[in-house]
Amino acid sequence: MTLPTPPWQRQSRSRPAKPPLSREAIVDAAMAVLTAEGLPAMSMRRVAQQLNTGAASLYAHVNNRYELEDLVFDRIIGEIPLPEPDPARWQEQLKQLMRDAAAAFARYPGSARLTLARVPFTPNSLRYLEFMLALMRGGRLSDRTAAFGVDLLSLYVSATGVEETIYLEQGLTEEAVGERFGQMRGYLESLPADRFPNVVSMVGPLLSGGGDDRFEFGLDILVRGLAATVDRRT
After folding, report:
1. How far apart are CA 64 and CA 122, in angstroms?
2. How far is it, in rounded angstroms, from Cα 166 to Cα 12?
3. Distance between CA atoms of 90 and 12, rounded to whole angstroms?
4. Which of 162, 208, 159, 201 is CA-nearest to residue 181?
5. For 106-156, what is each residue's pLDDT tens digit?
6. Is residue 54 a contact partner of residue 48, using CB atoms and an 8 Å limit?
7. Which one, 10, 85, 192, 216, has the greatest CB density within 10 A?
8. Rounded to whole angstroms, how far apart are CA atoms 125 and 114?
9. Residues 234, 230: Cα–Cα separation, whole Å
């Protein structure tokens, strides 16, 4: 027969205890907030709410929001495939890496901003950096060109992602975007051709192509430009 618990002793919990906090759980919660509400909402306080705890309890595992952003950035970078480098295909592999990076950041609203003014040294970001350098050195680019090329390509992907985020924040529908472009076309065509001959004559090309077309164009130019630095005589 089970005896009753004396009133001065702690009663058994009527509900399961919360799972212990960990850095992994905090990053999981931060990713959930990021996906649902965007980067600006991913504060320490909001992540703590997601975990049903207080913000102070997070600081036992994460120093501050900047470190949390580093961890989230590392998680996103970890989703990018890193195949075995093939020197014969280094240009195509490098372009595919940039496509995959852009797609990874697009899955998490606002996360492309995490790439700006940040030099993370987290495990996945280091593997990503190692892969980029291996591709470019495999293509016989100089060490200086490879080092600067990493920065150049990363900024290109970041800028593309930030621009897409701004469009999302504006809440423009596809119909609204089409209407905006129609207004832009009409305005440019109405400009005096004697003052803006190139603009007026090139309204069609200026407004042609979607985001993917323009991203691929820029990516091709950048990678071919890097490849052009190789001295073929050597």
Report:
1. 16
2. 51
3. 62
4. 208
5. 999 899 999 888 877 899 999 999 999 999 999 999 999 999 999 999 999
6. yes
7. 85
8. 12
9. 8
